[in-house]
Each structure stands twice: as C-alpha cells, then as structure tokens.
Amino acid sequence: MANEKKMWEIIVIGGSAGSFSVVSKILEKVPRNLSVPIVLCLHRLKDKREGFKEALEIKSNIPVREPCDKDKIEKGVAYLAPSNYHLLIESKEIFALSTTELVQYSRPSIDVLFESAADTYKGGVLGLLLSGANRDGALGMSRIKSKGGFTIVQDPKDASMPTMPAAAIETTTIDLVLDTSNLVSFFANIEKNLFIHAAS
C-alpha cells in the first residue's frame, strides 16, 4: 500500500545464559537486504574479548560488527555490544560506548541499551529479550513499551534460563511470547512484519 509506514526503525535484542544459540539461529534467517539495524547486547565474560563476534558471523546472513564510540548506525547490520562496555544509542545516527558502573551486575547492560533505544526511537523500537539468569532487560522492556515500542520475549518454558524473560513478563505488558522456532520464523519474515502494525 502506498501509505504504508514502517513502524519499527531498529531492533534491539538482549540475552544472557542460553541466548547465544537462539541469536545465531535468528541471524542465520534474517534477510540479507534487512532494512533496519539490529543491535545485540549479550552478556559474556569480561576476559573473553575474542571469538564471540566471529562465532555469530559464521552463519549470519548480515554483517556482524562491534561498534566503536561514535560509530554510525547503518541498516542491514547486526551490532554486538563490545565486552565490558555499555552500548547506547546516542542518536538515530550514532552509537556511544560507556564504562560507567555495572547495571544489574552487567556491562554491557541490556537495560542501558534498551532504555537508550527507547528514548531515541520512541515507538520505532522492536525489543526482544531472550534466555538469561538475572533481571537485566526487564526495565528496558518496560521503557520500550512505555514509549510505544513493540516487545517480544522468549517463552520462559522454552528458555534454558527463564529468569530474564519471566522478569520482563512480570514487569510490563509483552506483545508476543514466542518459543525458539516461532522467533526464528518471525525474524525470517521480518521485512513483512515491520509493517504489520502500519496505519491503513
């Protein structure tokens, strides 16, 4: 339709223990011509700086990059928060990195990324929270929802560590709760799904 409007301008994905395999499957299925950026905040060990991005790249249909401070945000790229840095959306064009204190015992923090994305993109954010063993991301999902964005969590029954998605469900209204198979299908068809809430 000529008057269709893309409702989501950015996808943010957070996860911790047990989320790596789900993210890998999603990146394997997203279209090569993806018209929005994906920004990933995945908890990892502070001393493991090498190999994480490369492991995601192996099957990803789109480039995977670890942004530096003030790097430009480009569509069709999956950005991975660097180890031991908070990753923030400074504007719709620019990333920022921070070494401020840990949030929810984590740096990078999912809450920090999600809240900055919501504050910048308002209702243009699609947020996904995956398996994890703490509550990081719950407040970020609440911020996304409060700004008019769209929220998805991995079904806690499907997650290897259910605490993180369960905390988000307790904290705010989640739009979709999906198991791994349906998450992969959703993102394989993301270009169509970007418009499912478009005004007629």
Per-chain topology:
Elements: E1 10-15, H1 20-29, E2 38-42, H2 52-57, E3 64-65, E4 78-80, E5 86-89, E6 95-98, H3 110-121, E7 125-129, H4 138-146, E8 150-154, H5 163-171, E9 176-178, H6 180-188, H7 190-193
Parallel strand pairs: 1-2, 1-7, 2-4, 3-4, 7-8, 8-9
Antiparallel strand pairs: 5-6
Helix pairs in contact: 1-6, 3-4, 4-5
Q: Could you walk me through the main structural features you see in this protein, from its secondary elements to its overall organization?
A:
The protein has 200 residues and is α/β, with parallel strands linked by helices. It has one domain (10-193): Rossmann fold (3-Layer(aba) Sandwich). Helix content is 30%, strand content 18%. Helix 3 (110-121) runs parallel beside helix 4 (138-146) and helix 4 packs parallel to helix 5. The longest helix has 12 residues, at 110-121. The N and C termini lie close together (8 Å). The model has no long low-confidence stretch (mean pLDDT 91).
Structural class determined from secondary elements: alpha/beta
Described by strand count, sense and barrel closure, the largest sheet is: 7 strands, parallel
Under the CATH scheme, the architecture is: 3-Layer(aba) Sandwich
Distance between the termini: 8 Å
Quick one: CATH superfamily? Methylesterase CheB, C-terminal domain
Proportion of helical residues: 25-40%
What is the string of helix and strand elements?
EHEHEEEEHEHEHEHH
The CATH topology assignment is Rossmann fold
The tally of beta strands, per DSSP, is 9
Q: How many helices does DSSP assign?
A: 7
Low-confidence parts: none
Largest beta sheet: strand ordering: 3-4-2-1-7-8-9
| Quaternary structure | single chain
Mean pLDDT: 91
- The CATH class is Alpha Beta
Strand content: 15-25%
Number of domains as seen in the coordinates: 1
